[in-house]
Write a structure and sequence with these properties.
14 helices; mainly alpha; 5% strand; 4 strands; 4-stranded mixed β-sheet; 349 residues
Length: 349
């Protein structure tokens, strides 16, 4: 059987899940996940539903930093038909479920089911034509998404539809992530929201958060070693900025717990104060604790940000950064009318 026929057969298995280069699949069948450990304490269904919604909302607020969004269909590097935030379309039926805007050559605002199926089948022919035109002899399709903007016609989706597809995909993969953690006697929703978002990002990006794949990360989470969790959250083949973000979020998760133990809510801190503790956490890592910084933590607990500003000094860093921390902390007391903060703002980056 020719490769083209094999591809057609694969695509027309309605709902079939095929692991591809992109991050998710539309119309995918859920994989079996490890059974949950009986000793794990779980929240009630309504509580978990609320926490799940909060996690999805937090994740979707950060995804634009690292994932591109395509409003037109394209073939990824493995030849999978893809749209939106990297959602694979694995069958003609799934392609028909996507809420496309009307084709430029069609007067109706929605293209019909049959037209969608026809568009889908045209991708196979177009793929073969373009590969031959560019002299490709392998199965890797290396034309960028932007370069494929019009080869499948002028059908497009809206940004709202891209978000809808993403949200549906996240809801479908979350049970797998939840059960992976439960198998290690961990409750995803008992972790700080920052850590939840990083773990979901890893699963979304790699498609695999099985304990066997990430043993050191799970060990760190179970031990509450957030510095190790920051190191072990790194992935290959992603932007360094994405790994840096993940590491900072893991450290921030540990800091949130440390603040909670001291009777301080990170979420209720003023934004300037959060900026400072975020920066201090990035510099000091797991050394920013109530035991090592008692006066600083006591000032935060009492909401005495003037006293906290007096404690914002780290040895071994440029003096400009110490000045920035102090002045930014004082912004929590009264917004500054000077330009000093803006001149030193880059010191936190």
């Amino acid at each position: 059987m020719s490769f083209l026929k094999q591809l057609k057969n694969k695509l027309f298995v309605t709902g079939a899940f095929v692991v591809g280069a992109s991050v998710g699949s539309i119309g995918a069948v859920k994989k079996n996940a490890p059974e949950s450990a009986s000793s794990v304490q779980t929240a009630t269904a309504p509580q978990n539903a609320t926490k799940k919604e909060a996690l999805i909302k937090a994740f979707m607020a950060t995804i634009d930093k690292f994932e591109g969004m395509s409003l037109h269909p394209y073939l990824d590097t493995k030849g999978n038909l893809t749209i939106g935030y990297g959602q694979n379309i694995q069958s003609a039926a799934a392609f028909a479920q996507v809420r496309f805007q009307g084709d430029a050559n069609i007067s109706d605002t929605r293209i019909s089911l049959m037209e969608k199926r026809a568009k889908f089948m045209n991708t196979v022919t177009n793929w073969k034509t373009i590969r031959q035109k560019n002299g490709h002899s392998t199965k890797i399709f290396n034309v960028t998404a932007t370069g494929q903007k019009d080869i499948f016609g002028s059908v497009r989706i809206t940004k709202a539809e891209a978000k809808r597809l993403l949200k549906n995909h996240l809801a479908a993969i979350l049970p797998v992530l939840e059960n992976n953690l439960k198998s290690q006697k961990l409750d995803l929703y008992a972790l700080p929201i920052m850590a939840q978002v990083v773990l979901l990002d890893i699963h979304y990006n790699t498609g695999n958060t099985a304990p066997a794949k990430w043993p050191a990360l799970y060990q760190a989470l179970k031990a509450g070693d957030w510095e190790k969790a920051a190191r072990e959250s790194a992935r290959k083949d992603v932007q360094s900025a994405r790994n840096l973000w993940a590491a900072r979020q893991m450290r921030l998760a540990g800091l949130t717990l440390e603040l909670n133990r001291a009777g301080i809510s990170y979420e209720q801190l003023p934004v300037p104060t959060r900026d400072v503790v975020n920066y201090m956490s990035a510099i000091l890592k797991n050394r920013l604790t109530a035991q090592k910084w008692p006066k600083f933590f006591d000032a935060l607990k009492k909401q005495n940000y003037t006293a906290a500003a007096a404690e914002c000094r780290i040895r071994g860093i440029p003096e400009a950064k110490n000045i920035w921390m102090k002045e930014r902390m004082l912004e929590a007391v009264a917004p500054s009318t000077t330009q000093t903060y803006y001149l030193n703002r880059t010191c936190s980056r």
